[in-house]
C-alpha cells in the first residue's frame, strides 16, 4: 500500500480504530517519518533524512548505513506475507536505542533480506549476498552469546522465509528446524494464557532461556512469534511428510489474537476462549466451531490437521496399516473434522463468482481465507488419494477438493502473487493428483481427458505465477 504521494505505508492494528466493521483495528500508517527520525538520532547520513530528496542507496557499490532503514520501510509493508508480526510503534522507537538495547542486528538483516525478495526490484538482488552474510554472522553471534534470543528466533524464521522465496528450500528447512528446537528450549510452546497477569502467561520453564514478558504487548509478540515459527516449520514437514519438531500434545500455547487486543483493558482479552492445539482434536471442546474466527487462527488449525494427515500418509506409505482398525478410526476421524471445519468456514462469495465464470474481486479477508481453503482441500486429497481405486467416497472427495482448488486459482488470478505465494505448496498437491488422475483415466480411454487438460493448464498457469522463485524476478 502507498499513499497518494507515493510514501510507503504499513498496516498495523490499533485499539483506537476498533469498530464493529473493523474488529481488529487495522489501519494504514506511514513508517518513513519514524525511520527518518531514527536516522537523525543515530547520526546516519542520508539524503532522505537531511535534504528531503530520494536516496538512491542501491546504486552504490558499498552500502551506506541508511540502507537498512529504507529496507525496513519496505519490510513493514509486507511483513504479513513474511509470517512475522510485531508491535510497530514500539519497534520503530527501538531503532533509536543504543545498539545493545535495540533490535538485534540479525533481526534487522533478516528483515532486509525479505524486503529485497518481496520488493520486486531486481536491482536490489546484487546486495543480497552481502546482507545474507551479515545475517548469518549476526545469528551466530546472537546464539553464541545468548543475546536477545527472541530476536534470534524471529530472525531465523524470516531467514527461512527468505530462502523459500529464493527457491533454496533445503537451507530454509534446516534453518527453521533449528529455530523450532530453540523455540521449544525457550518455552514458547508453554504460554497457556493471553492474560499477562495470569501466572500461566508469565511462567517460564526452568530450562527456558528467556525472561518472563514485561507487559501484555511483549506477551502478545511471544505468542505470535511461537505460532509464526510453527507455521513456517509445518509448511516444510507437511509437504515432505516428515515429523515436525513440535509435538501437538505438548503445545500449550494458546491461539493468538491481533496485537491491538493486548493494548486494551485485560477484560477484553479475558472474554475470548483460550484454546490450544490439543483442543481441536477433542470433539466436544468447541475449538472448531468459533464463528468469525481470526483467519490466522484458522490457518494454524489447518496446519495441525494437515500434519495429522501427513503422519497418517507416512504410516500408510512405509508399512501397510490399512488393515488396522485403529488406522481407519483415525482416518475417518480426521476426515470428519476437516469436513466439518470446511463447513464452518463457509463459501467465499468470490469463489461463487469464479465458479460461474465471472471476474471475482476478492477482499483482503477472502485472500487470507483462500489459503485455508486450499490447505484443507489439499489435505483431503493427500488423505484419500491412496484409496481412490477401491473406494468411491475417496475418489469423490479428491475430485471435489480438486474442483475447489481450481475455483480458488481462478479467484486469485489477478491478485498480486506476493500476497498469495503461500498457496503454491498446497496447490502443488492438487496439481500432482490431477496429473496422476489423468494418467489413470488415459489408460482407460476416458473421454474427459480434454476437459481435464484445460483444468491442468489453468492450475499450472496459476502455480507459475505463485512459484516463490518466480514472483520476485
UniProtKB/TrEMBL annotation:
Respond yes or no to whether keyword Endoplasmic reticulum is given for this record. no
**Main location per UniProt?**
nucleus
Can you name a GO cellular component term?
nucleus
Molecular functions (GO terms) = DNA-binding transcription factor activity, RNA polymerase II-specific; metal ion binding
- What keywords sit in the KW lines? Metal-binding, Nucleus, Transcription, Transcription regulation
List the PANTHER family.
ZN(2)-C6 FUNGAL-TYPE DOMAIN-CONTAINING PROTEIN, ZN(II)2CYS6 TRANSCRIPTION FACTOR (EUROFUNG)-RELATED
Q: What is this protein called?
A: Transcription factor domain-containing protein
The record lists the lineage as: Eukaryota, Fungi, Dikarya, Basidiomycota, Agaricomycotina
Amino acid at each position: 500500500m502507498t499513499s497518494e504521494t507515493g510514501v510507503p505505508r504499513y498496516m498495523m492494528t490499533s485499539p483506537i480504530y476498533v469498530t464493529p466493521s473493523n474488529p481488529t483495528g487495522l489501519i494504514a500508517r506511514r513508517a518513513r517519518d519514524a525511520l527518518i527520525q531514527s536516522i537523525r538520532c543515530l547520526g546516519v547520513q542520508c539524503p532522505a533524512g537531511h535534504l528531503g530528496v530520494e536516496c538512491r542507496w542501491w546504486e552504490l557499490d558499498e552500502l551506506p548505513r541508511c540502507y537498512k532503514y529504507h529496507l525496513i520501510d519496505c519490510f513493514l509493508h509486507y511483513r504479513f506475507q513474511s509470517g512475522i508480526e510485531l508491535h510497530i510503534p514500539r519497534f520503530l522507537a527501538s531503532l533509536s536505542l543504543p545498539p545493545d538495547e535495540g533490535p538485534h542486528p540479525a533481526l534487522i538483516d533478516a528483515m532486509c533480506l525479505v524486503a529485497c525478495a518481496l520488493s520486486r526490484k531486481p536491482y536490489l538482488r546484487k546486495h543480497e549476498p552481502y546482507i545474507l552474510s551479515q545475517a548469518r554472522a549476526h545469528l551466530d553471534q546472537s546464539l553464541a552469546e545468548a543475546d536477545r534470543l527472541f530476536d534470534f528466533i524471529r530472525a531465523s524464521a524470516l531467514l527461512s522465509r527468505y530462502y523459500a522465496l529464493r527457491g533454496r528450500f533445503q537451507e530454509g528447512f534446516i534453518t527453521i528446524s533449528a529455530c523450532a528446537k530453540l523455540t521449544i528450549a525457550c518455552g514458547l510452546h508453554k504460554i497457556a494464557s493471553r492474560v499477562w497477569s495470569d501466572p500461566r502467561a508469565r511462567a517460564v520453564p526452568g530450562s527456558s532461556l528467556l525472561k518472563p514478558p514485561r507487559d501484555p504487548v511483549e506477551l502478545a509478540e511471544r505468542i505470535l512469534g511461537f505460532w509464526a515459527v510453527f507455521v513456517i516449520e509445518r509448511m516444510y514437514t507437511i509437504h515432505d511428510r516428515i515429523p515436525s519438531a513440535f509435538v501437538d500434545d505438548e503445545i500449550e500455547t494458546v491461539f493468538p489474537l491481533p496485537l491491538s487486543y493486548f493494548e486494551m483493558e485485560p477484560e477484553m482479552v479475558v472474554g475470548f476462549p483460550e484454546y490450544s492445539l490439543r483442543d481441536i482434536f477433542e470433539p466436544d471442546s468447541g475449538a472448531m466451531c468459533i464463528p468469525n474466527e481470526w483467519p490466522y487462527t484458522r490457518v494454524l488449525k489447518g496446519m495441525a490437521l494437515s500434519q495429522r494427515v501427513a503422519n497418517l500418509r507416512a504410516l500408510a506409505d512405509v508399512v501397510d496399516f490399512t488393515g488396522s482398525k485403529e488406522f481407519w478410526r483415525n482416518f475417518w476421524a480426521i476426515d470428519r473434522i476437516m469436513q466439518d471445519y470446511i463447513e464452518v468456514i463457509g463459501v467465499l462469495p468470490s469463489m461463487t463468482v469464479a465458479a460461474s465464470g465471472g471476474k471475482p474481486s476478492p477482499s483482503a479477508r477472502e485472500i487470507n481465507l483462500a489459503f485455508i481453503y486450499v490447505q484443507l482441500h489439499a489435505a483431503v486429497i493427500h488423505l484419500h488419494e491412496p484409496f481412490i481405486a477401491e473406494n468411491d467416497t475417496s475418489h469423490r472427495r479428491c475430485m471435489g477438493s480438486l474442483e475447489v482448488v481450481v475455483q480458488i486459482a481462478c479467484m486469485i488470478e489477478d491478485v498480486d502473487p506476493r500476497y498469495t505465494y503461500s498457496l503454491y505448496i498446497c496447490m502443488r498437491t492438487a496439481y500432482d493428483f490431477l496429473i496422476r488422475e489423468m494418467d489413470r483415466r488415459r489408460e482407460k480411454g476416458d473421454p474427459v481427458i480434454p476437459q481435464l487438460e484445460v483444468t491442468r493448464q489453468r492450475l499450472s498457469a496459476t502455480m507459475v505465477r505463485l512459484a516463490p522463485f518466480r514472483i520476485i524476478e
